[in-house]
Amino acid sequence: MTVFDSKDKFQITAKTHHGLEDVLSEELKQLGAEDITKMTRAVGFKGDMQLLYKANLHLRTALRILVPIYKFKASNETWLYRGVQKVDWSKYLTEKDTIALDSAVNSPIFKNSQYVFLKAKDAIVDQFRNKTGIRPNVDLDDPTVRINVYIQNDEVILSLDSSGSSLHKRGYRNEVNEAPLNEALAAGLILMSGWDKQSNFIDPMCGSGTILIEAAMIVHNIAPNLHRKKFGFMNWNNFDKPLWDRIFNEASESKSDFNLSISGSDISPEAVRMAKGNIRAAGLQDKITLTRKDFVKIEPPAGKSTLIMNPPFGERMQPEDLNDLYKSIGDTLKQKFPGSEAWILSSNLEALKCIGLRTSKKIILHAGPLELRFNNYSLYAGL
Ligand SMILES: C[S@@+](CC[C@H](N)C(=O)[O-])C[C@H]1O[C@@H](n2cnc3c(N)ncnc32)[C@H](O)[C@@H]1O
User: Fold this and answer.
1) Cα of 329 to ligand 1 centre, how many Å?
2) What is the pLDDT of residue 5?
3) How far apart are CA 157 and CA 39, in angstroms?
């Protein structure tokens, strides 16, 4: 019996960024997942098809939702090939499907993940060719079925990717500036900040608007992937369209509506233009206000605010200019936002030191190869 026949609960893995495992586990708990187990860059859990669809639609910090279908040990490429061939792939796809394989390899035996990809792909397409004379084609950009090969030492896990393209591609971001934040990471920052969803929310260096859009979706209870048209599971031969329609309609109707100040600004007119377009694409133009402004000239709203910002890291700036910018951020926070909470995301430790405020909390995150600091500054009055 496979997950495709199963009416019962089965094992599922949600992948995420390094550092967001806790917040993803909490999201899964809220969604009703069972047997939640934290791993590195992933969280395992148990659920049924309904939870699988919901996980794709509702999880803000997940990147992919995988369904493991076969585990085996392989001590060399021949055993890898044989292991992949043990699966009856005709249960999951036909020769008319197009496939892509993602591989994550952490093993002294298999050092080249490209080679793992080729071996596993050959094992799948050879199985079809031997049976029917026709083989599924590879389409790396937009396959109908995506397969994940994870290797840890000699243990291989083959999974079906129920998401298709990465879940951070929400479907609202049409334009991006030079260093856009990953949407799942942006959502993770907001959830980790402990924002009370009542005080003002500000991103004063908003770039293409990702943090603002994710914050508005969180506070208005909008499922992060409501705007996304395609998910991998829609191409599976067991796709339960009535079940999906019900889950989607429930999510569409559960938006909450109330007034709250979410505001963004950026020094660059081009960034403000892009952010405007993305906010409109997300249908949030009535929920977020945008202005073009240098942060040092910001006029703070009345009452307590939570600020989350992601200043330039330094790739395109001289170190002295960057240090001056970070110093001006610290000074502005201190002068204009007493009683508020500020969070700054940056990979530049030198520049962060120039903020000159006492850090209340430090969180380490990873986005791809980049190590990031997410620092909290509680701006007590009279600081
Ligand atoms: C790393 S980007 C932010 C990316 C954004 N989080 C996103 O997802 O697109 C940094 C932004 O800070 C803006 N910026 C730099 N100096 C600024 C200042 N003094 N005041 C306001 N914005 C500034 C830049 O124009 C840029 O858009």
Assistant:
1) 12
2) 63
3) 14
Report the alpha-carbon distance of residue 186 to residue 205 in Å, rounded.
13
CA angle 39–45–48, rounded 5-degree value = 155
**Which atom of ligand 1 is closest in space to residue 179's alpha carbon?**
1
| Ligand 1 atom 13, closest CA | 205
Decide whether any atom of ligand 1 lies within 6 Å of the 266 Cβ: yes
Burial degree of 51 (CB within 10 A; 0-12, 13-18, 19+): buried
- The answer to whether 293 touches 336, Cβ cutoff 8 Å, is no
Q: Is 210 a pocket residue for ligand 1 (Cβ < 6 Å)?
A: yes
* Residues of the chain where predicted confidence (pLDDT) is lower than 70: 1-6, 382-383
Residues 6+ apart with CB under 8 A from 77: 110, 115, 119
The residue count of the chain comes to 383
Residue closest to 84 by CA, chosen among 94, 100, 95, 73: 73
Separation of 332 CA from ligand 1 center, angstroms? 15
Pocket test for ligand 1, best of 174, 178, 265, 266 (most atoms within 8 A of CB): 266
Domains, the chain, in order of start with CATH, read 10-161 (3.30.2130.30), 183-225+256-378 (3.40.50.150)
Ligand 1 binding pocket includes 180 (Cβ within 6 Å): yes
Ligand 1 centroid to 268 CA: how many Å? 8
CA–CA gap between residue 281 and residue 54 (Å, rounded): 22
Give yes or no for residue 207 CB within 6 A of ligand 1: yes
Q: What is the predicted pLDDT for the residue at 314?
A: 79
> Global pTM?
0.94
How far is the CA of 98 from the CAs of 71, 148, 150, 211, in angstroms? 23, 14, 20, 35
CA of 17 to the centre of ligand 1 (A): 22
| Residue 367, ligand 1, Cβ within 6 A | no
The answer for 284, left when phi > 0, alpha when psi is -120 to 50, beta otherwise, is alpha
